[in-house]
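Co-fold these.
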Amino acid sequence: MNRLLGSALFAVLLSGVFACSSPERKLPIYGERSTVEKEVDGKVQVDTVYQTIPDFAFLNQDSVLLTQDFFKDKIYVANFFFTHCPSICPTMQRNLLKAYEKYKGNPKIAFLSHSIDFKYDQPYILKDYANKLGVDNDQWQFVTGTKQAIYGMADKYLVYTKEDASVPGGYDHSGYLVIIDPEKRMRGAYDGTNQEQVDKLLEDLDVILKEYQ
Amino acid sequence: MLIRSTLYISSIIGALYLLFSCQSDLSIKTMQYATNGQKLYVTHCQNCHGAQGEGLGQLYPPLTDDQFFTQHREQLACIVKNGMAGEITVNGKTYNQQMPGVPQMSAIDIAYVLTYVTTTFGKSKTHFSQEEIEAFLAKCK
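Predicted complex below.
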């Protein structure tokens, strides 16, 4: 009797284990979307067109022009910062550094930090900053551009940036870390100053890596 | 049976004694200063210097160098209030990044935050007094 009860209990536990293994989780796709209709073999099909990151060309820490080509077939995490930012940037970059260190050497993952201080953060300043932060390969890119280009790009990533003399450091911005997939679509946004959300970012990078492996 | 339970009870007492005796050898006042300082540290310092005073790469120095604290004891208050620039050596490594100060911080607040840093990340057992900080601030360059 005891043995029967034991095996019944075992079966229940086992079913619990399998019931919990839900189908593969996928990250949502953010941004605006529209639909297009097209005819395939005489039938009308509806395709969804998602918001994507437009082409760009920014100078990086090595004074080389960086374009979308660098991120071809890669998942990357983008953010906005400036090197002498006294407020949220150090925490955000400290947290992004954890992700960089975790995926260092993985050719499918890259990082892209845009400086919003277009006056001061010249490539050599970005290079010095990257070195001191502990970034010693090209997997994490630091870029600068004109005010219009960088701030315009922030809008495309749905990250708030503004030149504002009334805040410490002179520039106001939000500390989001945004995941972009190889199809240039936004797949996640995480507050880079919040430990829980940064942990979630690391978790979600593993999830999206599976999607594009 | 009696021997066993006596042994049992005495070991509990022993463990409790160890637990409480290890808690702290700081004075109540020092602990109060450190507790007040923690809040200020989170607001004004933690972004760059980290939750454990670990610093960040070669950008921002850690706050764990007791030798630095001892040697520069008289300048620490000025650094907090006015910031600093130029090369410094901390834990044997050089750093050269401008640090913004917190000019609005009062002497007592500086005493709190320095007590927190030097007792929590460093090995100091004593607090900074308000009078001491005022004297240091009067000599800022």
